[in-house]
Amino acid sequence: MQELLKVAMPKGRIYKQASKLFREAGLAIPDETDESRKLIIAVPEANMEFIMAKPVDVPTYVEYGVADIGVVGKDVLMEENRDVYELLDLGIARCRMSVIGLPDWKPVLNPRVATKYPNVASQYFRERGQQVEVIKLNGSIELAPLIGLADRIVDMVETGSTIRENGLAEHEEIFSITSRLIANRVSYRMKNNAIQALCDRLQPVIAAALAAKA
Ligand code: PRP
């Protein structure tokens, strides 16, 4: 009998894709988990317990070891910079981090950049030797250039609908995003069999999905 794995799962748009991937890998995750409002869900069929977290908090739970592993977007990993192992690229929830602004945007001195990702944005402009003022917002980032709060924004683009419907343009892609499987450093050693077994089940499913896309 393998050890119980505590898994920090992101509530919301990634969860459905993650649970589907786990099911395809042969883990018996009941369908009810997709709609549940419970925050701690026992999944004895898969020898797991899901901790339903706000996506941005997943690396925190994993770093502190209250979850052994977690599923999290690369965007959150880059922003949070937590001390965790990144084990697998799950290939789900594919999108990108981009610099966005009005289509007729012109460079200005010390522009203001609004974003949910202040660390990612600061690093990006610093590496380019550009001085910017970063303004942290928590949502509806696309409003910022429309109402004059910021010259540009750094945000996630998935389908592109939000920028299109708001008459904005994508100026530059910073990096592409997919969800990752991460592990707590101690759990990775102490529960290595269970974690390795999960990776071994997931890997062929991820590879097959990639091949189907190519
Ligand atoms: C995210 C992101 C963009 C949008 C991109 O926002 O911040 O606004 O999705 O998706 P699209 O390219 O498919 O339109 P989210 O829906 O998480 O809401 P928020 O604005 O409250 O952050």
**Ions and ligands:** 1-O-pyrophosphono-5-O-phosphono-alpha-D-ribofuranose
How many structural domains? 2
Topology pattern, helix = H, strand = E: EHEEHEHEEEHEHEHEEHH
Strand content: 25-35%
Which structural class fits the helix and strand makeup? alpha/beta
Q: Please list the strands of the largest sheet in the order they lie side by side.
A: 2-3-1-4-11-5
Which percent range fits the helix content?
25-40%
Unreliable stretches covering 5 or more consecutive residues:
none
Round the Cα radius of gyration to an integer and report it.
Answer: 19 Å
Largest sheet: 6 strands, mixed
Quick check: average pLDDT? 96
At the fold tier of CATH, the topology name of the largest domain is D-Maltodextrin-Binding Protein, domain 2
Number of strands: 11
- The global form is elongated
CATH level 1 class label of the largest domain: Alpha Beta
At CATH's second level, what is the architecture of the largest domain? 3-Layer(aba) Sandwich
Report the span from N to C terminus: 38 Å
CATH-assigned homologous superfamily of the largest domain:
Periplasmic binding protein-like II
- Number of helical runs? 8
Subunit structure: Heteromultimer composed of HisG and HisZ subunits.
Catalytic activity: 1-(5-phospho-beta-D-ribosyl)-ATP + diphosphate = 5-phospho-alpha-D-ribose 1-diphosphate + ATP
Organism: Paenibacillus validus
InterPro entries: ATP_PRibTrfase_cat, ATP_PRibTrfase_HisG, ATP_PRibTrfase_HisG_short
